[in-house]
């Protein structure tokens, strides 16, 4: 199907928007430097530098800041960093000034002091992206989760969009968390944008495998998102992009108190609200129809919202509340006159509709009487409403008509997390208890495959069975975990476990885990981590939306896996070099297939092995100025064994659908004053595909058209050529008294590479010229534009 016209239209809209929003630039004086933690003599993780007379509020990620001053003079400068004493001083600016600030820890806690948790997460198999890296990675549409694809062993085989494939594991068993709330739909339509505002995020930790004991009911990777937990000044931002716009506002809760008879203001918490709306359907379809005199056959709409508040009851107790949600709507009509003449005629006038909304909340009570002890009690809910309807009018198969599926997986839970330093500087206990209640409801019908499906054939009446729905399914899990962090000199050892009990099957899993690292004074760190990881598929809302029957399957065992990781890291000046090797086994993987027992629709039995290594070199401690970026190479193999009785290759280990053997990524950027230039280059092996080796037919459709059904060879036994892409980006930032405006323009696929496409002509039988490998059609290069105002 040809899509080049819509890409051309997007390019035209970009150029128009760019001509309207590009601001002017001017700034004759500047001040730069670093914010230092006085207790460690190292740059802080984050700080804010305020120049009161100029009305400037500048972020200092990794302790580095840069600002342009409108004129020379003597200024009052205030510097703040979470967990450290603020300072206020005078700075004289008569040109380009370099000034470092040293902030000391609080000697005592007064009303409203915000305490930030210790950053003590394991480094093995973990990558953390700074706010600047997220913003400046090209081709990410300025989105946090999209930016993760620039990291080692994170890919999207489908191209710009689609689920994140991490170390060759099934993306459906990755775990996503936002402030400990599980998230089964992290992105709009699986790839446009994440469902939470970028500026609400404090940091993202990606655990590619071998993650700590607190994370459960997942087998692949963990993406853990923490939201900001401090607001010192009122502010916000508005971000307008090509396909969506977002806004965020925030303000502290200030209360007046009396100390020693004097009135003082205390920061008692904060309120944050944000939202995003996608507007593709507002302007793309009318312009498309006007210019091309054709009706657009697909329309998408989406929006999301977030709200967070925190209030300090006193020095030791606080309450927090987080709520966020999203909605996606898509309608796709494959009109016959728009199909490529070689396409499957069964797809003529096929219609697909999908609506999905989710709403999540978390209520937190935190008790922290001192730095060495904290306990958080949390109640949460994660509610999803999923509607799908599809039909293939040209098909004669009964299952291909009026396919309507309604699923409502609602998850509620209680968590209690304890953190206690029981042996000063040597021993720290982390433990948790959790209860989850799964209320899953269904209606309509679902399709269950009767056999191993290699090529989708809407005309085959025996490939699927239409099964009626209409059940209310209740499941419960009980979870506990514990780990002890022991530190002795260079050595850190973290033994732990994660245990779960599933009420429906009365099955219990006990997963021992551990991590060991040795940090030498030379900047060299050796590490090892691993353990058992289990997943009860009946509680997975993603799978439930696709195959609702799995929620009540009391005959399915938990999926199991073992992760093993070895790590070597070397820091030299401002550079970090890291190498990791991994070997992960997965077994008892659930597959859908017709069973001997008519009440059963699936079974355990498939296996997978994912192994390989990663090498990465990165510029660390990047500030607002200078170079940033990294280079990585990944070699990995992901093999699967289906063990399905209808699969003729069931006993063979074949390349999995998620395998990409070689991946090279280079991300590089440079910031000079208000200008940032960045680029990304990626070269990778193509994903495997199943070749066509013959055909049957011809079959004559009711409308008289002839169709030859392809016959497929060995699963995933062929690959096309290597895939490469270059993306470039330029952004500009202008400071004003009230904040700043930044805008960016980028060229996606600047090298104009078009990937290969495997095309079969259904009008003709299999031959040496059918199928063929040809370049995909469409506009090779895609411009993108956005502008942000922060106040």
Determine the CATH superfamily of the largest domain: TonB-dependent receptor, beta-barrel domain
Poorly predicted runs are: 1-27, 106-119
Number of domains: 2
How is the biggest beta sheet arranged?
A: 22 strands, antiparallel, barrel
What gross morphology would you assign?
globular
Return the average pLDDT rounded to an integer. Answer: 84
Instruction: Give the DSSP E fraction (strand runs of 2 or more residues).
Output: over 45%
Q: Number of helical segments?
A: 5
Q: Roughly how much helix do the residues carry, as a percent range?
A: under 10%
Number of strands: 44
Question: Structural class, from helix and strand content?
Answer: mainly beta
Which CATH-level-2 architecture of the largest domain? Beta Barrel
Question: Which fold does the CATH topology of the largest domain refer to?
Answer: Maltoporin, Chain A
User: What is the rounded distance between the termini?
Assistant: 45 Å
Question: Would you state the CATH class of the largest domain?
Answer: Mainly Beta
Radius of gyration over C-alpha positions, nearest whole angstrom = 28 Å
Question: Which descriptors apply to this entry?
Answer:
Maltoporin, Chain A, disordered N terminus, 791 residues, mainly beta, Immunoglobulin-like, 5-stranded mixed beta sheet, 6% helix, globular, 22-stranded antiparallel beta barrel
Quick take:
With 791 residues, this protein is mainly beta. The chain contains five helices and 44 strands.
Description of the molecule:
With 791 residues, this protein is mainly β. It has five helices and 44 strands. The protein folds into two domains: 4-103, Sandwich (Immunoglobulin-like), CATH 2.60.40.1120; 126-421 and 428-445 and 458-790, Maltoporin, Chain A (Beta Barrel). The radius of gyration is 28 Å and the shape is globular. The longest helix has 18 residues, at 4-21. The model is unreliable at 1-27 and 106-119 (pLDDT under 50). The strands form seven sheets. The chain has a 22-stranded antiparallel barrel. Strands 1, 2, 5, 8 and 9 form a five-stranded mixed β-sheet that branches. Helix 1 (4-21) packs across helix 4 (280-292). Strand 36 (662-672) and strand 37 (675-684) form a beta hairpin.
């Amino acid at each position: 199907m040809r899509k080049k016209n819509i890409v051309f239209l997007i390019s035209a809209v970009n150029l128009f928007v760019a001509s309207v929003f590009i601001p002017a630039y001017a700034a004759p004086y500047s001040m730069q430097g670093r914010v230092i933690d006085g207790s460690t003599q190292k740059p802080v993780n984050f700080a804010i530098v305020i120049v009161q007379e100029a009305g400037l509020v500048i972020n200092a990620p990794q302790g580095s800041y840069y600002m342009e001053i409108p004129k020379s003079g003597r200024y009052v400068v205030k510097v703040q960093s979470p967990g450290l004493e603020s300072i206020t001083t005078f700075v004289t600016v008569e040109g380009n000034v370099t000034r470092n600030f040293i902030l000391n820890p609080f000697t005592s806690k007064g009303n409203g002091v915000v305490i930030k948790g210790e950053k003590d997460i394991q480094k093995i198999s973990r990558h953390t992206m700074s706010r600047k890296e997220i913003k400046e990675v090209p081709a990410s549409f300025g989105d946090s989760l999209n930016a993760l694809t620039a990291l080692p062993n994170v890919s999207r085989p489908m191209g710009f969009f689609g689920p994140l494939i991490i170390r060759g594991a099934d993306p459906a068993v990755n775990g996503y968390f936002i402030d400990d709330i599980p998230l089964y739909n992290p992105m709009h339509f699986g790839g446009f944008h994440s469902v939470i505002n970028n500026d609400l995020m404090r940091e993202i930790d990606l655990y590619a495998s071998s993650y700590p004991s607190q994370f459960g009911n997942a087998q692949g990777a963990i993406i853990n998102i923490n939201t900001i937990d401090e607001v010192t000044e009122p502010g916000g931002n508005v971000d307008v992009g090509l396909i969506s716009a977002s806004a965020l506002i925030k303000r502290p809760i200030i209360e007046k108190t009396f100390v020693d008879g004097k009135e003082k203001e205390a920061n008692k918490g904060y309120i944050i609200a944000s939202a995003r709306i996608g507007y593709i359907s507002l302007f793309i379809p009318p312009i498309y129809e006007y210019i091309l005199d054709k009706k657009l056959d697909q329309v998408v709409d989406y929006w999301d919202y977030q709200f967070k508040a925190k209030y300090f009851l006193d020095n030791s107790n606080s309450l927090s509340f987080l709520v966020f949600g999203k909605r996606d709507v898509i309608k796709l009509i494959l009109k016959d006159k728009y199909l490529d003449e070689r396409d499957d005629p069964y797809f003529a006038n096929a219609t697909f509709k999908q609506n999905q909304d989710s709403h999540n909340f978390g209520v937190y009570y935190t008790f922290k009487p001192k730095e060495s002890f904290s306990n958080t009690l949390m109640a949460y809910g994660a509610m999803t409403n999923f509607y799908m309807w599809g039909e293939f009018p040209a098909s004669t198969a009964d299952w291909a008509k009026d396919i309507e599926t309604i699923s409502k997986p609602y998850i509620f839970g209680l968590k209690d997390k304890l953190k206690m330093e029981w042996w000063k500087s040597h021993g720290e206990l982390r433990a948790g208890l959790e209860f989850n209640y799964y209320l899953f409801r269904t209606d309509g019908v679902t399709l269950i495959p009767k056999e191993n499906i290699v090529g989708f054939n809407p005309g085959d009446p025996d490939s699927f069975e239409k099964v009626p729905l209409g059940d209310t399914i209740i499941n419960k899990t009980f979870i506990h975990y514990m780990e002890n962090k022991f530190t002795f000199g260079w050595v850190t050892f973290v033994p732990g476990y994660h245990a779960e009990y599933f009420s429906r099957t009365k099955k219990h899993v006990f997963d021992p885990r551990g991590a060991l690292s040795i940090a030498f004074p030379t900047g060299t760190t050796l590490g090892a981590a691993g353990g058992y990881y289990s997943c009860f598929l009946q509680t997975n809302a993603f799978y439930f939306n696709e195959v609702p029957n799995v929620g009540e399957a009391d005959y399915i065992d938990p999926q199991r896996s073992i992760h093993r990781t070895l790590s070597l890291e070397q820091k030299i000046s401002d550079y970090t070099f890291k190498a990791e090797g991994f070997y992960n086994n997965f077994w008892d993987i659930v597959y859908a297939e017709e069973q001997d027992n008519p009440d059963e629709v699936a079974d355990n039995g498939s296996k997978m092995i994912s192994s390989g290594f990663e090498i990465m070199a990165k510029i660390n401690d990047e500030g607002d100025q200078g170079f940033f970026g990294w280079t990585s190479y990944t070699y990995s193999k992901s093999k699967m064994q289906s063990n399905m009785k209808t699969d003729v290759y069931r006993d063979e280990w074949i390349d999995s659908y998620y395998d990409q053997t070689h991946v090279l990524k280079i991300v590089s950027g440079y910031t000079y004053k208000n200008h940032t230039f960045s680029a990304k280059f990626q070269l990778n092996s193509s994903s495997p595909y199943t070749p066509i080796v013959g055909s049957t037919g011809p079959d004559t459709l009711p409308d008289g058209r002839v169709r030859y059904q392809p016959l497929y060879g060995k699963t995933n036994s062929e690959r096309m050529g290597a895939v490469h892409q270059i993306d470039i980006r330029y952004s500009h930032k202008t400071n004003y008294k009230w904040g700043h405006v930044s805008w960016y323009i980028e060229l996606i696929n600047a090298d104009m590479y078009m990937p290969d496409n495997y095309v079969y002509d259904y009008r003709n039988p299999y031959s040496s010229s059918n199928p063929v490998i040809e370049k995909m059609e469409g506009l090779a290069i895609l411009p993108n534009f956005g502008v942000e105002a922060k106040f």
